[in-house]
Design a protein that fits this description.
The complex is a heterodimer of chains A (about 190) and B (about 270). Chain A has about 190 residues and is an all-alpha fold. In chain A, about 70% of the residues lie in helices and about 0% in strands. Chain A has 9 helices and no strands. Chain B has 13 helices and no strands. The chains are: A mainly alpha (about 190), B mainly alpha (about 270). At the A-B interface, α1, α3 and α6 of A face α4, α5, α6, α7 and α8 of B.
């Protein structure tokens, strides 16, 4: 006599098979496919196996993007803005006194800076620069937000000087980033 | 006639190794207990929405003290299951299912801490929970165990292939960078390896070769299989000691009985 179909078994088979196929597809080197899967994945169902043992810096960047998108409340669009060096909302990091986030951001920035085979486009440079700044800023400072331009400049200068080797134009860097930060702070204060 | 090994005995071994991993991780988390509180690494739920919403409830569930309760539950369940893996009974299956969902909880909410090795834990819990169902047939148990094995192979292969494609890994540079990471246990190791490019290159290539060997070893004769397994244990042991990442050791060691099962099953088919 044949055995009756056990629905739990069927569900288990289907789930495991689907999970494995999803994993396999996620592992393939097709970024657009991975992006589609990411919408379903949310960093949970498909591990980015390629970053095991700190694999490739590009892959790490993807992972960090997923992490900070979820933890910092940034969506894909905001991360695109970061990567393109456009102004974005900084509050996700600034209001989280999380040293480890800062440390990891800082390490990521360092990794990008010393990876010679990475695309050295302006977007990468901007991303690296901002990550480094945010990392230092988060590590050194905590809320409340600066209320005056002077206070902001003092904090920023401290953060950047602490982060940069001597003689690399910290003040110019602060000025160039100032507008972005002030925009953010005015938005934050408006809320 | 040679038959495939009994999945039940190997499943119990996998289950016990998983439980040891959970307990080891729990000890690590207890030492980091301030991180469980709101604002910490494991209790971090960002800015709460001001108004009541599903997102607010979800974020509160992710925070303290729920995360502490989930952690305590994991320790209790793992302690029970380590002594009594309880495969084939409803209480045991339910305990494994709760462990699976506790892993989902932490993997989803605390991704800065729960990373790749915890994903392998998730896969192990899923496979073991399915195999632990009281009505699971032998075929289902074999498939559940096979699932763990092929996922382990996929993890190793993808990681090895990605390293192989990277010029920095092939040259040994990347390994030197990785070892210089400030969070690791042995600060002098990175500069030591970085100063010896040949050593760095040969170590890099040995990692690549080992990772790419895993999917191959299941279809190879016993001596090759056991060599790869021993090298894998040594590899993860070194990572645990030198890089302060013990999670990989337990998570991947738990898949080795499944790899052996797949290896023996394939060998039985081949004969």
């Amino acid at each position: 006599m044949s055995r009756p179909i056990n629905l739990i078994e069927v569900a288990a088979f289907t789930g495991m098979a689907g999970w494995f196929v999803g994993h396999l597809l996620y592992t393939l080197p097709f970024p657009s496919l991975r992006r589609h899967l990411d919408r379903f994945n949310q960093g949970l169902w498909f591990a980015n196996w390629s970053v095991f043992g700190a694999g490739d810096q590009r892959a790490e960047t993807t992972t960090y993007t997923v992490e900070f998108r979820d933890h910092g409340g940034l969506d894909e669009g905001q991360w695109t803005q970061v990567a393109q060096g456009r102004p974005w909302r900084w509050h996700a990091f600034l209001w989280q006194p999380e040293r480890r986030v800062a440390d990891r951001l800082h390490r990521l920035a360092e990794g990008i800076a010393r990876t010679p085979d990475l695309d050295s486009s302006a977007a990468q440079v901007a991303l690296q620069r901002r990550l480094r700044l945010i990392a230092r800023y988060v590590a050194v400072h905590s809320p409340p937000a600066p209320t005056t331009k002077r206070e902001l400049r003092i904090r920023m200068t401290r953060a950047v000087i602490a982060d940069r080797p001597e003689g690399t134009g910290a003040n110019n860097f602060v000025r160039s980033e100032e507008r972005v930060l002030l925009t953010f702070f005015s938005e934050a204060n408006d809320r | 006639m040679i038959t495939a090994p009994d999945p039940a005995a190997l499943l119990e071994l996998s289950a016990r190794v998983c439980c040891v991993g959970i307990l080891a991780q729990a000890i690590e988390l207890v030492s980091l207990h301030p991180e469980l509180r709101d604002g910490g690494l494991l209790g971090w739920h960002g800015a709460l929405p001001a108004t009541f919403s599903v997102r607010q409830v979800r974020q509160r569930l992710q925070g303290y003290p729920v995360n502490l309760l989930v952690l305590i539950w994991r320790v209790l369940a793992a302690s029970v299951l380590m002594a009594w893996p309880a495969l084939g009974s409803w209480p045991g299956a339910l305990l494994w299912i709760t462990l699976f969902f506790s892993q989902v909880y932490f993997n989803r909410g605390a991704r800065l801490f729960f990373a790749n090795s915890d994903h392998m834990n998730l896969i192990c819990f899923a496979g073991i929970a399915v195999a632990a169902l009281p009505e699971a047939s032998v075929l289902v148990r074999r498939c559940a165990f096979g699932f763990i094995a092929v996922e382990s192979c996929l993890g190793y292969a993808a990681s090895g292939f990605e390293k192989f494609r990277s010029a920095q890994w092939r040259s040994g540079l990347r390994l030197a960078y990785v070892l210089q990471d400030g969070s690791h246990h042995v600060p002098g190791l990175g500069p030591y390896v970085a100063a010896r490019p040949r050593l760095s290159r040969s170590l890099s290539w040995s990692v690549v070769a080992l990772e790419l060997s895993f999917p191959v070893c299941v279809v190879m004769p016993d001596p090759f299989f056991w060599t790869v397994i021993a090298a894998g244990l040594l590899f993860h042991g070194m990572i645990a000691v030198l890089m302060a990442l013990p999670g990989f050791f337990w998570a991947f060691a738990a898949t080795y009985p499944a790899l052996y099962f797949l290896h023996a099953w394939i060998a039985a088919f081949a004969r």
